[in-house]
Task: inverse folding
């Protein structure tokens, strides 16, 4: 009898266990498996990120949570290792209705911004440091809803650096467009005289050099703080060539203190060439260009000291400047020199305005070379720049109208197209 | 207090006063600070270049590669030399050669070699600058300027509330401001009556910006000045052996002696 009770209790226990197991099984089945889970290299990046994609499910909502795991070891053993052994790292967690392909910030020409696919970018370098090209990592996605948990199969994905970034295709397009405008303008410039408006600061160059010649004092020319990778330095070196020609003709003393050794050497070649073109090779000296130091304020202190002692008749400040702008021009102003500045460092322009006699604002610096030389090809480039400006003005006007219309009418597609076309990515 | 901290305070106060002495006029104390500053700056940059660039980025990868290859060919080499780090690479030799080519300018007979290096640097610089300029100075500026003029309220109608109207006004002002300012920078167009007026409005926009930039920068510079004055104030205490008052006094005495003497000697 006793045995019978025990047997009945065991049977009942087995029954309830099987029932509860079945119900638990039933509950687990309620989260459908992930479909089409893939891991691949993140397109157009430097090879440090992977992209996980899977189709959205009917059950995807904000009550559900996705957890993304990554491992570098999971697939290396004879079989899939256990959770701890495989070294799974949780890299992301988000709600079921988040992280869709449309949320990836890539333009329409490079990316299918679907609303039906989950797309998750995993920046592997945040977890594994430097990523080797071709490395394979393993991913799995865990779905959680209440107490239910569902795990996807483990998928491998290799990452590599990409040669091309298609998202920047618009940049290439604009470069080509602007280049074409330049070539067109230069070709037409050769055919006839183009008008070029007066730039007062550059008209004063002759006056400044003439004053230095009369006073027998040196002319100081500074090329800014940046190297040859900067547009403003390139423009400054070009203007230096034109000014050097005039200085060589007048037989005035020129001094060009440098803060960047490569710029100094380029300027040596430019000044040498200018003296040669002016037929005054004999007047050229190697020490016209000289290096001071790379340090911003040590350079400033040195140049200030030199200007105070030598009292130059004219000072030119062309190129890019930082906080030293006022420190330099203030001293130049005290020495009584004619000062002409030109920079595209817009934050420094006010300081040049208050201390210099003439200031070239932003693009006037780029135009200075063409203005001084009157070379038709260079003057043509100014026309090219103007075409670029017309394009920018038209785009701003039409873009604002288009965006307003898209916003008011709810045309999301147009908003995305305009946003993508004028995004530098 | 630690002796080095006291010495540091005296040097900091002394050099600050030497540099500030230039506000009166050029003098030997300023010249000392100026030459010291340049010398230290060059020495510092030289050591940074050696330890942060030359050794880790060129010497180590190249020497590692050479020693690893040598060890494979001649096994006994590994008994004497153990390369630190990975197997290394010979790739850094290419930029190193370009860099070293610049030094040939010291020798006039072979200085022509440096032109290859400079050609590479200038070409690379321009190549790097052009797309970066197009992206940041052209596309990004347009992107920042284009904004929807009107916004929708929750009901779907155009939002005409105060803040929304202010946003609309800002968007229109920004858009028009950029266009008229760009007009100022037309070089190949002769300005007629209307375009002259447009240009003038553009100049007003520029001046407003420059005024704002001036104010912001001046405030930043004052913060730097406070920093210097704070140091001078801190180092006045007995803990630093009254560095600030003593050095101010010494500088003033020097000024009286030096400029008094030069006044007497000047005709």
Result:
């Amino acid at each position: 009898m006793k045995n019978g009770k025990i047997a009945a209790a065991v049977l009942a226990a087995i029954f309830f266990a099987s029932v509860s197991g079945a119900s638990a099984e039933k509950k687990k089945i309620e989260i459908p498996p992930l479909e089409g889970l893939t891991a691949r290299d993140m397109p157009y990046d430097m090879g440090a990120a992977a992209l996980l994609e899977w189709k959205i499910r009917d059950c995807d909502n904000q009550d559900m949570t996705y957890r993304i795991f990554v491992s570098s070891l999971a697939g290396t053993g004879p079989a899939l290792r256990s959770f701890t052994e495989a070294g799974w790292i949780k890299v992301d967690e988000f709600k079921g209705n988040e992280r869709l392909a449309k949320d990836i910030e890539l333009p329409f020409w490079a990316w299918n911004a679907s609303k039906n696919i989950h797309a998750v970018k995993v920046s592997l370098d945040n977890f594994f440091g430097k990523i080797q090209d071709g490395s394979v990592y393993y991913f799995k996605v865990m779905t959680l809803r209440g107490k239910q948990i569902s795990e996807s199969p483990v998928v491998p994905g290799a990452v590599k650096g990409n040669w091309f970034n298609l998202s920047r295709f618009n940049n290439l397009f604009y470069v080509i467009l602007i280049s074409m405008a330049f070539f067109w303008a230069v070709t037409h410039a050769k055919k006839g005289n183009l008008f070029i408006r007066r730039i007062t600061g550059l008209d004063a160059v002759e006056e400044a050099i003439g004053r230095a010649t009369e006073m027998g004092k040196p002319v100081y020319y500074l090329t800014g703080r940046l190297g040859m990778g900067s547009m403003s330095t390139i423009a400054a070196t070009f203007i230096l060539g034109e000014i050097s020609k005039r200085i060589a003709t007048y037989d005035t003393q020129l001094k060009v203190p440098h803060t960047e050794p490569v710029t100094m050497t380029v300027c040596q070649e430019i000044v040498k060439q200018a003296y040669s073109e002016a037929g005054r090779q004999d007047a050229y000296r190697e020490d016209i260009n000289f290096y001071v130091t790379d340090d911003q304020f040590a350079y400033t202190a040195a140049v200030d000291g030199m200007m105070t002692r030598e009292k130059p008749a004219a000072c030119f400040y062309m190129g890019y400047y930082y906080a030293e702008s006022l420190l330099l021009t203030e001293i130049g102003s005290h020495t009584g020199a004619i000062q002409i500045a030109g920079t595209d460092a817009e934050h420094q322009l006010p300081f040049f305005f208050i201390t210099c006699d003439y200031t070239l604002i932003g693009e006037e610096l780029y135009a200075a070379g063409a203005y001084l030389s009157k070379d038709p090809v260079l003057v043509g480039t100014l026309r090219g720049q103007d075409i670029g400006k017309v394009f920018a003005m038209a785009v701003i006007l039409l873009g604002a109208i288009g965006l307003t219309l898209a916003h008011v009418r709810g045309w999301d597609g147009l908003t995305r197209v305009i946003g993508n076309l004028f995004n530098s990515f | 207090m630690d002796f080095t901290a006291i010495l540091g305070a005296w040097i900091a106060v002394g050099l600050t006063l030497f540099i500030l002495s230039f506000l009166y006029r050029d003098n030997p104390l300023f010249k000392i600070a100026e030459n010291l500053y340049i010398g230290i700056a060059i020495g510092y940059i030289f050591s940074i270049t050696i330890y942060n660039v030359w050794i880790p980025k060129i010497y180590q990868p190249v020497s590692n590669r050479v020693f690893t290859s040598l060890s494979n060919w001649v096994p006994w080499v590994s008994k004497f030399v153990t390369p630190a780090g990975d197997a290394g690479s010979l790739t850094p030799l290419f930029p190193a050669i370009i860099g070293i080519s610049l030094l040939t300018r010291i020798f006039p007979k072979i200085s022509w070699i440096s032109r290859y290096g400079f050609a590479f640097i200038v070409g690379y610089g321009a190549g790097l600058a052009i797309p970066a300029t197009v992206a940041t100075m052209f596309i990004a500026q347009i992107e920042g300027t284009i904004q929807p003029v009107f916004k929708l309220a929750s009901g779907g109608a155009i939002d005409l509330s105060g803040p929304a109207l202010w946003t609309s006004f800002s968007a229109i002002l920004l858009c028009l401001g950029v266009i008229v300012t760009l007009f100022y920078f037309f070089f190949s167009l002769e300005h007629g009556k209307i375009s002259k007026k447009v240009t003038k409005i553009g100049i007003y926009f520029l001046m407003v910006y420059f005024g704002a930039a001036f104010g912001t920068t001046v405030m930043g510079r004052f913060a730097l000045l406070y920093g210097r004055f704070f140091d001078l104030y801190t180092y006045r205490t007995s803990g630093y052996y009254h560095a600030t008052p003593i050095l101010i006094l010494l500088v003033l005495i020097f000024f009286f002696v030096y400029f008094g003497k030069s006044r007497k000697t000047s005709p």
Observations:
- Chain A has a mean pLDDT of 88.
- The first strand of chain A starts at residue 38 and ends at 41.
